[in-house]
Amino acid sequence: MTDTETKAVLTDNTVPAVVIQPPKDVEPERISPEDKDLLNAMKYQRDLAVAAAETAVANGKLAEANHRNVVLQFAHKYRLVDGDRINEDGTIVRKTK
Questions:
Q1: Rounded alpha-carbon distances, angstroms, from residue 84 to 14, 72, 73, 74
Q2: Cα(41)–Cα(36) distance, rounded to whole angstroms?
Q3: 33-72: pLDDT as tens digits
Q4: Model's pTM, two decimal places?
């Protein structure tokens, strides 16, 4: 073999693919420690933003469920039927028959 090992790998289509591996005694190339720190900081910032967005969605769903619950309580308390409504000033407008 040469400096780099080569071996054939069969894929699902049984077409040989060549995988080239670096020599075992060579250190892999790396980014600088400063760039690694920056990358980790950006990953952390992204994860925080995703978590905040997920929390906001959950809070929105909870608020919607609370609103529906209150509407159902009022429907029961004031014997509202489909078509009745409550105005912004709190007056009840009954569905005309």
A1: 68, 12, 14, 11
A2: 9
A3: 999 999 999 999 999 999 999 999 999 999 999 999 999 9
A4: 0.57
